[in-house]
From TrEMBL:
<feature type="domain" description="Glycoside hydrolase family 2 catalytic">
    <location>
        <begin position="454"/>
        <end position="753"/>
    </location>
</feature>
<dbReference type="InterPro" id="IPR006103">
    <property type="entry name" value="Glyco_hydro_2_cat"/>
</dbReference>
<dbReference type="InterPro" id="IPR008979">
    <property type="entry name" value="Galactose-bd-like_sf"/>
</dbReference>
<feature type="region of interest" description="Disordered">
    <location>
        <begin position="405"/>
        <end position="436"/>
    </location>
</feature>
<protein>
    <submittedName>
        <fullName>Glycosyl hydrolases family 2, TIM barrel domain-containing protein</fullName>
    </submittedName>
</protein>
<dbReference type="InterPro" id="IPR051913">
    <property type="entry name" value="GH2_Domain-Containing"/>
</dbReference>
<comment type="similarity">
    <text>Belongs to the glycosyl hydrolase 2 family.</text>
</comment>
<dbReference type="InterPro" id="IPR013783">
    <property type="entry name" value="Ig-like_fold"/>
</dbReference>
<dbReference type="InterPro" id="IPR006101">
    <property type="entry name" value="Glyco_hydro_2"/>
</dbReference>
<dbReference type="InterPro" id="IPR017853">
    <property type="entry name" value="GH"/>
</dbReference>
<dbReference type="Pfam" id="PF02836">
    <property type="entry name" value="Glyco_hydro_2_C"/>
</dbReference>
<dbReference type="GO" id="GO:0005975">
    <property type="term" value="P:carbohydrate metabolic process"/>
</dbReference>
<dbReference type="GO" id="GO:0004553">
    <property type="term" value="F:hydrolase activity, hydrolyzing O-glycosyl compounds"/>
</dbReference>
<keyword id="KW-0378">Hydrolase</keyword>
Length: 981
């Protein structure tokens, strides 16, 4: 006999799949030979202007002796728009110039180079060291700050670097000249000889401009362009012989797997493990240098590496060589390189792993263990000094201390083959030893993928429909200045829902977030910030191409990325400028992407028919559409998709769909006539209804190569008009902006996508007080059978078996048909494997003692006739003793005495009314007796969470002698005098 083991919803929120945290941002690609210093707590001081006013010029703000003690102390990441985009006032985001200053104390020594590395600064950046403007590495000389003329990095979402070495050496010379002039010839404080290592102090000043610049995309978009150094920054010190750091912000190590990428069929390609590794080796010394360049591919475990049967290209000889207790070198090469003074040499190495262990995507099917998900190899290139005193030997494909190898000479075995240039040549049987000078590592994965016009997406020969979400990087109260912990929390929530695919919109995201996708088997569409407008400037096309090059070179080694996004909804406004038209620009971007990377598809997110292959044919390999039936267009999900397919010959995906939703508004039978964009009424149930329709179509059409709903999280848009009574927010997310509440539609998608984590969820749960009825109770679940137990006013519970409607939806009709309090329990079980023993592993056929029953509970009130609600919450009695007897009193405002002021009350734009918040006065711009109740209702709104659809409706005939009290749903009240303007 089995017994039920009840598992409530709260215990199912943590997934059985444990997210791999990918190590964090600090790891990046830098080898152990480099000194890497996080600059988060450098003692930064910050100040900014206000729009175009109060902007400091570089001669002042970058001067070494400028007194910045009055500036705000900040740490990185930082944005100056975290709060003004979340204050309920539409359009007051401060787009201006911000300045960051800090004193940098750094050692300067012969044979070392020093770089400053920014992960992301929005959006135009200039750097000054002791007042001297430096140019970003690999920048176009024409890239300048538009009103200073100083060199600048253009674009707000990619990594970029500065070489500080010369500026620091100048500072050393200046200090030495000063010491000589003053007779101070003391040795450096660290005790080293003068000229060996000297500590130097410099002032670094960073000018950041997030105003619109017609050269730089995006020019306009439905998200905030937060200003600031909003991602980490660090100092990197290398040897004077090193891998180049000036390749458009990339690591300097490019790994191409020509057969492990985009494929013309689902069949496994030949030579899947073929790997081409390239880098530039730079000699910044004034003398000739002889070095070894060692390249390895390392497997993360001996077991996996043994299965991989890795070999070099030379003769197929297996080389599984243990580097330590866990990692195994499966392919390697050693190349001799001679570098003239100040020479740069391009090195290319070709290695092959036979039968590589595949990078597999995440699996959310029942019972999936995901033990083999997202397998990655580590590729490392190391530069070894053959002239310095021998500390390490290169032997048997690895670097080890001489003592460990039992050697005391300068020779070692060095197998391998490569493809080098110039003096790069194969190693003889023995090779000199030396000290590692520099190294860079990249993680890669071997997989192949194919997009079929009629059957959708395949990876590693198997159909794998891509079903996921889009994501913006901002968060309420923080803007886009997120730390790893927030990125990890976002990713964990996404994985809980069962997402196997992410469109990371509308710009390159943080390196750490891509790391999480690589490490957890989530496939990615990565894109550039080319949105809506073509900039009216001759440099716009070039700068946009530069952003595409940065994206591909910085993220091109990642196994998770399968698609490069070229544009989003260009055509909403301007499609051409006097220098270039969008069809031509699309072709140039597409060609550039293929030149940079032939192993991935190009795609675009379209909303204009001119983009389609049968119309303007804007170039990309495959295409997706942003479409919002029932929101921005007429209802009818399937019909709209079929119309787009009829004009498109390329494989078609769905890059955006969805509707807005307020967790504080509810309605049993919402409709598109009342619920629409920028309206005061956007009930949570309408979002769920639209997503139910979307999923029913998506689940039946695998030819959709990808689908990504808009959006995973609510996000900030400072210029947005009211959505459900709240300005500055796009509320189409399935999770609230603060990440605290998962909306009903979150669980609907989880029921469709995540079979790994059983659950039941009662939808419309926040509709706790209902005027409407009888009600259909909807349950979202990934289980096979669902039933309800319903108790009315404390009576015995009655069981109702739920009807399975498909696509994770279960319903029971005709409940709550009488007033009173209802307690509703939902239960669900799985027919296959849902019955388990206490250890969760024994089926009932094996004599299980327990059956897992998943449960959820709500308590709802069906109101009696005459009772009223606001947003699903009971409203107390209304004191209308002083109100005019004209029917205008609807329970949402009244004349009485009150107390506190809710921050979220605002006069609606262009209403003819304003608020004197300090004096607590409502000011009307026309005679009070002429104002109708409808005009009062439209005049004021509560924009904060929890106060949706709550307007100040006041009776006509008010005079300055009256007082108006507006009450928020949380009970707080604001007492206003009413005056005529």
């Amino acid at each position: 006999m089995t017994h039920p083991r009840i598992i409530p919803l709260s215990q199912t929120e943590t997934s059985r799949y444990h997210v791999r945290d990918a190590g964090g941002t600090a790891t990046l690609n830098h080898g152990p030979e480099r000194e890497v210093v996080d600059l988060a707590d450098l003692g930064w001081r910050f100040a900014c202007g206000h729009g175009d006013d109060d902007i400091l010029d570089p001669a002042t703000a970058a001067a070494p002796d400028f007194d910045d003690s009055g500036w705000e102390p900040v740490t990185l990441p930082h944005t100056w728009n975290a709060l003004d985009t979340n204050d309920g006032v539409r359009g007051n985001m401060n787009r201006t110039v911000g300045w960051y200053r800090a004193h940098l104390h750094v050692p300067v020594s012969p044979g070392r180079r020093t770089y400053l590395e920014f992960d992301g600064v929005n959006s135009i950046t200039s750097l000054y060291v002791d007042g001297r403007a430096l140019a970003p590495l690999s920048a176009d000389p024409r890239d300048t700050a538009w009103n200073t003329g100083d060199p600048a990095h253009l674009g707000g979402y990619a990594m970029f670097r500065y070489d500080l070495t010369d500026a620091l050496l100048d500072a050393v010379s200046t200090t030495a000249d000063h010491d000589a002039a003053t007779g101070n010839d003391a040795a450096p404080a660290d005790g080293t000889a003068d000229g060996d290592v000297r500590d130097v102090d410099v002032v670094i000043a960073v000018r950041v401009d997030n105003r619109r610049d017609l050269r730089v995309a995006p020019l306009f978009a439905d998200f905030n362009f937060y200003g600031g150094i909003y991602r980490p920054a660090r100092l990197v010190r290398t040897a004077d012989v090193h891998l180049a750091l000036d390749d458009h912000g990339a690591s300097g190590l490019r790994v191409v797997t020509p057969n492990a990428g985009r494929s013309e069929s689902v069949e496994r390609p030949d030579h899947l493990g073929l790997t081409r590794i390239e880098a530039d080796i730079v000699n910044d010394a004034d003398r000739e240098r002889h070095v070894l360049v060692r390249t390895t591919i390392v497997a993360p475990s001996a077991t996996a590496a043994g299965n991989a049967s890795a070999t070099t290209v030379t003769d197929g000889t297996a080389l599984p060589i243990a580097d330590d207790a866990h990692d195994v070198t499966v392919a390697n090469d050693v190349t001799n390189v001679t570098l003239a003074p100040r020479e740069r040499r391009h090195v290319k190495v070709t290695l092959e792993i036979k039968n590589p262990h595949l990078w597999q995507p995440i699996d959310y099917s029942r019972g999936a263990t995901n033990d083999d998900v997202a397998y990655q190899y580590n590729v490392r290139m190391t530069v070894i000094d053959t002239e310095s005193p021998a500390k390490f030997a290169v032997g048997n494909g690895k670097i080890a201390p001489l003592a460990a190898l039992g050697r005391n000479d300068n020779t070692a075995e060095a197998p391998g083959r490569h493809d080098g240039n110039g003096d790069a040549r194969s190693q003889p049987a023995t090779a000199p030893t030396g000290t590692p000078l520099d190294s860079v590592a990249e993680r890669i994965g071997y997989r192949w993928f194919h997009v079929s016009h009629d059957h959708g997406f395949f990876i590693n020969g198997r159909s794998h429909p891509l079903r996921g979400v889009t994501r913006h990087q901002d968060r309420e109260g923080l803007g886009n200045a997120l730390h790893d912990a927030q990125h990890l929390e976002d990713f964990t929530i996404i994985m809980q829902m069962g997402v196997n695919y992410l469109r990371l919109a509308h710009y390159p995201h943080a390196n750490y977030f891509y790391d999480l996708c690589d490490a957890n088997g989530v496939i990615v569409w990565a894109e550039i910030p080319f949105i809506d407008w073509v900039g009216e400037d001759e440099r716009f096309a070039d700068v946009t191409k530069e952003q595409l090059v940065e994206l591909i070179r910085q993220q091109g080694n990642r196994p998770s990325i399968c698609f490069w996004g070229l544009q989003n909804e260009v055509g909403n406004h301007n499609t051409a400028n006097q220098w270039i038209a969008m069809p031509q620009l699309s072709r140039e971007l597409n060609d550039l992407a293929h030149t940079e990377d032939a192993t991935r598809y190009t795609t675009q997110a379209a909303d204009q028919d001119e983009t389609a292959s049968s119309r303007g044919n804007w170039a990309s390999d495959i295409i997706s559409w942003n479409m919002y039936p029932g929101w921005y267009s007429q209802p009818g999900f399937g019909a709209l998709i079929e119309q787009k397919r009829s004009i498109e010959s390329r494989p078609l995906g769905l890059s955006e769909y969805g509707t807005g939703a307020s967790i504080d508004q509810h309605e049993l039978h919402p409709n598109a006539h009342k619920t629409r964009p920028n309206s005061y009424w956007q009930p949570e149930e309408y979002q769920s209804m639209q997503h139910e329709e979307a999923l029913a179509y998506i689940n039946a059409h695998d030819w959709l190569w990808s689908t990504s709903l808009w959006n995973m999280f609510d996000f900030g848009v400072d210029h947005r008009p009211s959505e459900a009574g709240r300005f500055e927010i796009n509320n189409k997310g399935l999770v609230t902006w603060d990440r605290r509440v998962k909306k009903d539609a979150f669980y609907l998608h989880k029921a469709n996508w995540n079979r790994l984590d059983p659950f039941v969820y009662i939808a419309s749960r926040r509709y706790t007080a209902r005027e409407e009825g009888p009600s259909t109770v909807r349950v979202y679940s990934n289980l096979d059978r669902v039933w309800l137990q319903v108790a009315h006013d404390g009576a015995a519970a009655v069981r109702y078996d739920a009807r399975a409607c498909g696509n994770g939806v279960f319903t029971v009709d005709g409940l709550l048909n009488e007033s009173g309090v209802y307690t509703i329990w939902a239960y669900g079980v799985a027919d296959d494997g849902g019955c388990e023993g206490e250890d969760g592993a024994v089926s009932p056929d094996d004599g299980a003692a327990y059956v897992n029953v998943y449960a959820d509970q709500v308590i709802w009130t069906r109101l009696a006739d005459g009772d009223r609600t606001t947003g699903g919450r009971i409203v107390g009695a209304v004191d209308d003793s002083d109100a005019a007897d004209d029917g205008s009193d609807d329970g949402r405002a009244r004349i009485a005495d009150g107390a506190q002021i809710p921050w979220s009350l605002w006069a609606r734009p262009d209403s003819g009314f304003s608020l004197d918040r300090e004096g607590l006065r409502m000011i009307a711009q026309r005679p009070l007796p002429e104002i109708t109740p409808e005009q009062w209702q439209a005049a004021f709104s509560f924009n904060g969470s929890g106060t949706i659809d709550f307007y100040a409706t006041l009776p006509t005939g008010l005079t300055p002698a009256d007082k108006a009290v507006v009450t928020a749903p949380d009970g707080t009240q604001t007492v206003f005098t009413v005056v005529q303007g």
